[in-house]
Specification:
The protein is 15% helix and 32% strand. It is an alpha+beta fold. It has two domains: 36 residues; 227 residues, Ribbon (Umud Fragment, subunit A).
Length: 265
């Protein structure tokens, strides 16, 4: 009788350790993937509307631009903002698969002023180029980019203020990349100086042009190549602002189903 009890105890103990082993392996695999390949982020602000919306969760490819010390800097679980900082590797420059960001890429980078806060914007100006806004129209190297009005849509400016119509445009960058932008009418950032992008730096802008803190702002400025974390690839989850990722019982009403598994362009 005691032998059967011992066997049952061994089986239970063995099953428990098997579960623990599987969990540890899964966590190690997830950590490895997050560190070297894809990192999840969620969008907390409207600076990239209409491309990215508040409540979007996306994967960022770390392989796109190679690795830098900021690629391995963890600033919080799937969010933008320095909740905590862990930097397991530190080295100058970029290594492995170090491709240059391309114009039109939607990319995550570390804010140059603190090298900790994660920002996500679109690559607009490349090293050595000239970028300027003139009456709300983007100019690159002295030439206006193509822009075509699509529609009027409801919006707020600034966020939380009274509602007003916003003009939606299709903007075509010099390399042929097309994306949508929001325009609320004239704002101070619609007329700027001519920015000359330094070597090894990039000029970043939000698609929600009148509600975006980007390279037009001295607090952001030109972004060093080293500060890029990766390129946004796909939206894997999206929930409306009045919902919550953790309130799964409300998902049928709050999930934006049409945005799931869509590529970021």
């Amino acid at each position: 009788m005691s032998t059967n009890t011992d066997d049952a105890g061994k089986k239970t103990e063995g099953g428990t350790w098997e579960v623990i082993r599987v969990v540890i392996q899964a966590l190690l695999i997830a950590f490895f993937v997050r560190t070297f390949f894809y990192q999840p982020f969620n969008i907390p602000s409207g600076s990239m509307i209409p491309t990215l919306r508040i409540g979007d969760y996306l994967f960022v490819s770390k392989l796109s631009y190679g690795y830098s010390k900021y690629t391995f800097s963890f600033s919080g679980p799937g969010s933008f903002g320095p909740m905590f900082k862990i930097q397991p590797f530190s080295f100058p420059g970029r290594v492995f698969f170090a491709a240059q960001p391309e114009r039109g890429d939607v990319a995550v980078f570390k804010l140059p002023s603190d090298n900790e806060t994660d920002y996500i914007k679109r690559v607009i100006g490349l090293p050595g180029e000239k970028v300027q806004m003139i009456q709300g129209l983007l100019h690159i190297n002295g030439k206006p980019v193509g822009r075509r009005k699509v529609e009027n849509a409801p919006g707020t400016v600034p966020p939380g203020a009274r509602s007003r119509n916003v003009e939606v445009f299709t903007e075509t960058l010099p390399n042929g990349v097309e994306h949508l932008t929001y325009d609320y009418g004239w704002q101070p950032q619609d007329d700027t100086i001519e920015y000359v992008v330094p070597a090894g730096h990039f000029f970043m802008m939000g698609d929600n042009r009148d509600n975006s803190r980007d390279s037009r702002d001295p607090g952001v400025g030109y972004v060093p190549y080293e500060n890029f974390v990766g390129r946004a690839e796909v939206i894997f989850f999206s929930i409306s602002p009045d919902g919550s990722f953790w309130q799964f019982w409300r998902w049928p009403q709050t999930i934006r189903w049409s945005r799931l598994f869509t590529s970021v362009d």
